[in-house]
Design goal:
The protein is an alpha/beta fold and 217 residues long. It has eight helices and eight strands, in the order ββαααβαβαβαβαβαβ. The chain is 40% helix and 16% strand.
Length: 217
């Protein structure tokens, strides 16, 4: 029986790609760099915002100085516009309500920076109690490093065997593998199902309600 469900945020609980793309494009354009189509950002995100900016910058311009410049302008814009177009994926609010009603613990493990993670989760899911809401924190390695999962397990007081990690990318599948918990890949997020299936997760969810059936598996 799974007692703890750890969810990735971007691409799993929330479709945030448009706001991430528009905010990065704003920072790129402000500093004279070319912008990208929103769809391209599906493959830029997943490893934290500094890696996002590195991927978005042109070849030959991926310097630490440029990354920090884009970061500064991105944060100023995204902090205001991070919920303009973002929204939960279909069935996600109902899934979280059902898990909560069934007594499961729910947590978020994201590579989105902590301040934005803490802002968006309660904004979109005000009636859900989250055992932990953890994002990218200073001095702590990002996923797929398993530290974030270990931190949540300690807070929840739940074993690895009682935990299911749910995400939409190869980073998430690697995080589950490295932390020793069962993985569930979701097909509605930013990456193709084949990317997740390459890591042989225990479960694949085609719609949010599928995850309910995995609790006792």
């Amino acid at each position: 029986m799974k007692r703890l469900f750890i969810f990735d945020l971007d691409g799993t609980l929330l479709n945030t790609i448009a706001d991430l793309a528009h905010s990065t494009n704003y920072a790129l354009e402000k500093n004279g760099f070319p912008t990208h189509e929103v769809s391209e950002y599906n493959f830029f995100v997943g490893n934290g915002i500094n890696k996002l900016f590195e991927r978005a910058l042109p070849e030959g311009q991926k310097t630490e100085e440029n990354i920090q410049t884009i970061r500064r302008d991105f944060l100023a814009y995204y902090d205001i516009h991070n919920a303009d177009k973002s929204c939960p994926y279909p069935g996600i609010p109902e899934l979280l309500q059902a898990l909560q009603a069934d007594g499961a613990q729910i947590a978020v493990a994201s590579n989105k920076y902590q301040a934005a993670t803490e802002k968006l989760v309660p904004h979109f899911f005000p009636h859900i109690h989250f055992t932990a809401i953890l994002g990218q924190r200073e001095g702590i390695p990002t996923k797929p490093d398993p530290t974030i999962v270990y931190d949540i397990l300690a807070i929840a007081g739940v074993s690895k065997e009682e935990t299911l990690y749910i995400g939409d990318s190869n980073v998430d599948m690697q995080t589950a593998l490295q932390s020793g918990v069962d993985a569930c890949g979701v097909t509605w997020g930013f990456r193709p199902a084949s990317e997740l299936e390459a890591f042989h997760p225990k479960f694949m969810a085609r719609q949010a309600a599928d995850i309910l059936a995995f609790r006792g598996a």
